[in-house]
From TrEMBL:
InterPro entries: ArsR-like_HTH, WH-like_DNA-bd_sf, WH_DNA-bd_sf. Residues 11-20 have a biased composition (Basic and acidic residues). This is ArsR family transcriptional regulator. Residues 1-10 have a biased composition (Acidic residues). Residues 1-20 are annotated as: Disordered. It comes from Streptomyces gilvosporeus.
């Protein structure tokens, strides 16, 4: 099977939609990695994510083809570094906003997949630790709470890039925290009092 055959297969699978592209586990991992480290080659991605460099190279090219990433400047040679797409016309934060929207969409998609497939999980994994709450905070306190959460998760973060550090039975677990102020509803937002 040639690279063109794989590209054709991928076209059939994605059918030109961003949604199917985002569903792909390898591509999601690559986007997350690029968001964290900035620039990565297929070989580096393979080392960090535990996939083959050929698989990472293929999916990096597909992400570039669909406009999510681009080749990073480099000094030539066989090394081919990639980075998140830089939109030079959006210096006011639209790129970060677009990636934030993509990340939130992936989180929501993963949550919906969990809800529909949790009955297929091993019995010890058929629960989740979801919770929410409202607290009255100042902007400084909100940042402090976020820092506490980050520090609580820090001891587990290296396991993503170091598979041998994972204890037996460990699975990837989505850790999603969104801290934001609850704004009042605008007049005419569907309040049918």
């Amino acid at each position: 099977m040639t690279a063109d055959d794989l590209d054709a297969q991928d076209d059939d699978r994605t059918a030109g939609t961003d949604e199917k592209l985002r569903e792909h586990e390898v591509r999601t991992a690559l986007l997350d990695l690029l968001a964290k480290v900035g620039t990565v080659t297929a070989t580096q991605a393979a080392s960090w994510l535990g996939y083959s460099s050929g698989l990472c190279s293929f999916h990096l090219r597909q992400l570039a083809r669909h406009g999510y990433i681009e080749e990073a400047p480099h000094s030539g040679g066989r090394v081919r570094p990639w980075r998140l797409k830089q939109d030079t016309t959006a210096a006011d934060g639209h790129v970060a906003e677009r990636f934030g929207d993509l990340a939130r969409g992936l989180e929501d998609e993963s949550w919906q997949r969990w809800l529909t497939q949790r009955g297929e999980a091993p019995s010890e994994w058929r629960h989740e630790e979801a919770f929410s709450g409202v607290a009255y905070l100042t902007p400084e306190e909100m940042s402090a709470v976020a820092d506490v959460i980050r520090r609580a998760l820090a001891p587990y973060q290296d396991r993503e890039h170091r598979p041998l550090a994972r204890p037996d039975g460990a699975l990837p677990v989505a850790l999603i925290t969104r801290l934001f102020p609850l704004l009042p509803h605008a007049v005419g937002d569907g309040d049918q009092g």
